[in-house]
Amino acid sequence: MTDLSVSEQLAVKRGVDLNDQRLWLKIASERLSIVRYVFLVQVEDGIASASQRAALEYADAVLIGWPDNDSPEVRDLEDHEFDTVRNLMAIMERHIAAFTAQECEGEVDAMSDMLVQITDCVAQVRRLFQPDFPLPTFDEISKVVQEEWDEDMGKIDSPDAAASAEGIERQTEHADEQRETSQTSDAEGRAA
Fold first, then answer.
1. How does 17-55 read in b/e, with b if 16+ C-beta sit within 10 Å?
2. 21, 30, 83, 160: least surrounded by Cβ within 10 Å?
């Protein structure tokens, strides 16, 4: 048990069979789900940047349709593949520790980058267990999200958006003027 991490040692003490390969598949999805949620909470109060949106979309794409451990789509691994999974999970846990430290410091952009690295580890684990499942790369998702972001930002900067803002401002000024006129008339009526 000396080659095991502290978490693995604790799991063994609790009776968890670390040689159950499919357990690692489940842990990978659960860890990514938690990290994704923590990141979502960090960005939900503001407008997420394109890179932040892409990081979330990538995590979603890797988690979508996650198979049950007993699914026929999930294959058993060779020993060297299982060693690779355990190595990827150790890397993922180091990334999660860094992600947690970045969260404490409020470094949302760094958290975004770390979410991508965590998701990469989980994607590789899933590819080993479910090689036929089509997983997009972060670059593919990032390109699509950036195009959507640019389109959305173009709408904000468009002449129509400026005209709308000016129209709203005029309507607000008109409503303020009417309110002042109404209050003045009410005050004059009470005085008489």
1. eeeebbebbebbbebbeebbeebeebbeeeebebebbbb
2. 160
Residue 112 to residue 99: CA distance in whole angstroms: 9
Say if residues 133 and 72 touch (Cβ distance below 8 Å).
no
How many C-beta atoms surround the C-beta of residue 116 within 10 A?
A: 19
- Are 108 and 55 contacting, i.e. CB atoms less than 8 angstroms apart? no
Q: Which residues have C-beta within 8 Å of that of residue 35, sequence separation ≥ 6? A: 59, 96, 99, 115, 118
Matching residue, tokens 């949106």: 53
Q: What token pair was written down for 103?
A: 């969260």
Pick the closest to residue 120 from 89, 146, 97, 143 (CA basis): 89
pLDDT tens track for 31-71 = 999 999 999 999 887 778 889 999 999 999 999 999 998 89
Question: DSSP letter at 189?
Answer: H
**Is-above-0.85 flag for pTM?**
no
